[in-house]
Specification:
The structure is a homohexamer of 239-residue chains. Chain A contains seven helices and eight strands, in the order E-H-E-H-H-E-H-E-H-E-E-H-H-E-E. By secondary structure, the first copy, chain A, is of the alpha/beta class. Chain A has one domain (6-230): LmbE-like (Rossmann fold, 3-Layer(aba) Sandwich), CATH 3.40.50.10320. Chain A has a seven-stranded mixed sheet. In chain A, strand 4, helix 5 and strand 5 form a beta-alpha-beta unit. Chain A is globular and about 60 Å long. Chains B and F meet through helix 5 of B and helix 2 of F.
Chain lengths: 239, 239, 239, 239, 239, 239
């Protein structure tokens, strides 16, 4: 497995990448990789309640703030920030949006794509994002046989950790040690001022997954980790 | 994930390692690792029918021949060969045999252990081996907390591919490219003269898994591969 | 777990609630709760064959009869009856219908929602209803974080028993003792004159589930029960 | 289980039926059954790369060639060939296409339908085909109760073997011995000149499944077999 | 799939075969097959409570009565009755008992074996029986390769329906139409006087499974059926 | 579901009950229930490493200290402490130990039993405990039919949360709000001086499960919770 030179994170909402994958992204960019964060919506309805408490708030202003915060968080981990602004609660992805997504996958030719789990009983948009990313990845890379359009090398696909993992069918296959870059993840989380209450929650998650990673690897240096579930097998040249 | 310096393959019978893991072992030894093949029995009853066609055959002689063949096959891939001679059809592993197995795991401190799947509707001994290896690995490495006995670093655990994978619940998570060492695997297979009819079968399997690995990785150099299922997650320092 | 004060049953067709949940609804209304039955369609094509045997039958008349029967059955168990009349075989739920459904969930603020299983190899409309109810429940109650719209307390979600449970992936987590109200369920079933042949079938089911409930609880008073599968965990203040 | 007199194979692309079910179809037609191959698309984008290497190739010409090849392959196994030409990569099936498909199921009244698995991480069109076939089969045969439209006897439903079975959740329940008709399957495969490289692959698959079938049945006459997964149970008059 | 000429039913207790498989056995014997019922214990502790209500009851007498009843029930469906008398609650099967069981499988060379499910949260003995039957079947028939002992043709293996199917992981793959022999099943049930209360329960189950079988097959002649789960795939010469 | 008057927690080692169930036990005793903690071993080998760092440590002394700590922790939550002292790493439970366990279940007649999950890739003793508790519960309560021995009312069975839940197949079905008694759980944890490093870990787990419980219930008062998986269904008199 060669190291990722280009990583794409696709989230249903503007902040998903921060809590679930900012560490792995920061590790990649610290090692010279290119990283792109793609948000399918700003999460302006479902997860921006703090902003809506402001008097005279408008949806345009909520989106503007979420864009700024997303950009700032992405910058903290060395990633580019993009948003398709497809709307949330519910997020819907028709043929045109699927083509947009596929074109971005083709353009970026990522080695790794990170996205949501197939199920999430607590969020109607996450499974929609999952399903669209799976399709876009297949449409961009073909079925492994000669096809009538340009294809890219099939990216590795990982699911990031949902809020209530067992109820989403999430079983970790991969832990990434994010100890060396944990301050960057903290900076990214700090940028998401609208969801401040999640910072402590996800710091503890990183410690806990660090604990799991230590037990599994026997490497006592791991302090913080993120968990992922790999969807298609890896191909190794040796064990 | 650092490269394996020591690999242990545990098979229920003397020939299991050849068909299922000889390629991955040969890759490891070619890169300087130590490899040990541990057979729990000689498979003298369940899979030595060809030998029993000889007139006046005895169980001692069957075991002797199986030992020679196993040793020769192991030598072809640079591995040491050992057999606990616990009997087959049915293989039974009591407390004493479990301790023997645990002691060997402690002695070798392998980075990687390879063994059978949890289920196999076509073989009564494979699940028994699986269960014993899981226990021995845990007894040797502890539960990740301070314990009252010497523990080793927890080895990575992979299951090798059974004869009818779907019916054994086998889902590959890892393909190892064995193209550079495929001749060695062929030599190992050739040593198992008692089960000659399997050589073509497993050559084709290696090609087919090579096909799968090519499609997944987009690496057109892979011609032969072996498939494995990883049981505990990996811990990475980056993607 | 506090007792339900408001219950919503969503069925794909006009009669689903009768066979699958009339007992649990009757128990609730007998204890003072409000109950609403919402049918997504009248089932005028897929399950009204008896009515179509009448000469000169029209779809309007079939719907009219199904409405009367549904209303009568709902009345027998103390529930209100509504129908969205979205058509059946196939039932399709677009954005607008999803919003209607979400608005009803918001309006009723039910403590409990009952609906179909995720899979049903014998009915194309049941999974469509399941999926829409899951989404509507999430859209109405938010993701548990502050959102930009009014949210209701997340209702408990139960699936009711399908016709061939194992093939629909149904595994009961909850039995409701309907012994005290079984006559009401019988009255509700009697109202569905178009599907008379099902009355004995579902009486026996209630006895069988009563048998199961007796064995599980050790309570020999249970004679009739309905089985449900809870989808999100319960939160208790004590065991 | 009475023998199939009419078989319908539904593939997402023009060649799917050849690799996955040509043997079972040839067995059926050799015994006097009627067989129909229905392709939802020509696979003109996703699996016709060889044809697109020709200079000045057009999509009409690719479709024309794929039609000819499909017809020829179908003829080799005694089947009729039809194509809905709905487009591929991505294949999309709206209400109208679903009705077309349902009408064909009603018209043919097949005893057996063969189609793709529910999941396929390597092909975006296969699950779309699966889902549409399930719906069409239900819409044509009703829910087992009296309905307001003409229904046919519910066809047995089998999934055929995908390229990477374990990753698609495929677990075989049924092997069909295709030894007597294997030459016909080879002729059908030879007709698909655009995907010549798959012929050896699927010959070996047939041998391997033959090996599995021999071990399971103890019938040493089986040399070639195809594997299928039955979705709804069988009803037997005796074991 | 050729018709079974010899059927073996293995139950943990003396009465299991009656409720769960008497119909399928009666169908077989009515068609000329040989059927053997093998009980691993008399169920003298776990399911003979009615007998223990007699004053001065002894375990020998309970076993004697259970033997008579089992024999009578077996006679009603044309089967031979045997019991290994290994004790129940808990049933334990050591090496010697496993050999006894294997010898019987070898002796009878059954085409079909019927036994309990792998899990049963309501009975500690059923999974023990399941596991022993799986092993004995494999030890008697070998692994499909040449072995050093006499092997029989691998029998088809079916699990019969447990009391609470979903909680035991039971998913039917096969229904047997027992309409023509239902009176024999009733006679067999009547023989088990110690568990009289189960007769109505299992009559209704047979009707319900008959209902399922009718819906699946479209054959309106089926009135009574038994459901089974096939464990290893079938090998067919045609669909 | 009536409230538990008697609770039994069975752990493989002396400290398991503290981390995994002390809160639910404290809630029960605060409401007047009787609680018993039963440890199958002292965990003297596998999880007492801190104690073995003392010079001249002996196994008797380790057990003595573990007994004191267990007793003190149990006292903090109002429970009685017992230990069968069967040895750990590996824990083995033969016929005699199973009878001891069954007798204790019969003696206590608990309404609720709490124990380990069926799988745990990080601990060889937890699944052994799980399996023995399941059997003992069944042997004590019978199969729901009249049996030849005294039976108790079948206790509700819950699995408590393992260290790495997803890898153990743990899916929560039940959260218990332990906010009112959280200080008692802290006192119990403080008593386990040999595993001090786990106190912060399990405090955070309680907060995280509290977060989950808040989101699910919408009850903002929940600050600390424990998660459990219910194994057999509940029987309710109403929803």
């Amino acid at each position: 497995m060669s190291e990722a030179k280009s990583i794409l994170v696709v989230g249903a909402h503007a902040a998903d990448f921060v809590w679930r994958a900012a560490g792995a992204v920061a590790v990649a960019t610290a090692r010279g990789a290119r990283a792109t964060v793609l948000c399918l919506s700003y999460g302006e309805r479902g997860e921006s309640g703090e902003l809506w408490k402001e008097p005279n708030q408008t949806v345009e202003n909520v989106k503007r703030i979420r864009h700024q915060q997303g950009e700032q968080a992405a910058a903290a981990i060395g990633a580019e920030f993009r948003c398709l602004d497809l709307g949330d609660y519910p997020l819907e992805i028709g043929r045109e949006a699927l083509e947009q997504l596929t074109d971005i996958v083709r353009e970026l030719e990522p080695d790794v794509i990170l996205t949501h789990t197939e199920k999430d009983p607590f969020n109607p948009d996450h499974p929609v994002a999952h399903s669209a990313v799976l399709k876009a990845r297949q449409l961009a890379s073909g079925a492994g046989v000669a096809s009538g359009f340009k294809t890219i090398k099939p990216p590795r696909l990982y699911l990031f950790e949902p809020h209530q993992p067992e109820l989403c069918g999430f079983v970790p296959t991969t832990f990434v040690d994010i100890t060396p870059v944990f301050e960057r993840k903290q900076a990214a989380m700090a940028a998401m001022a609208a969801q401040k209450y999640l910072q402590r929650y996800y710091t503890e998650l990183a410690e806990r997954r660090g604990n799991h990673a230590r037990r599994i690897s026997g490497n006592s240096e791991v302090r913080y980790a993120e968990a992922f579930q790999r969807v298609v097998p890896e191909v190794l040249s040796h064990l």
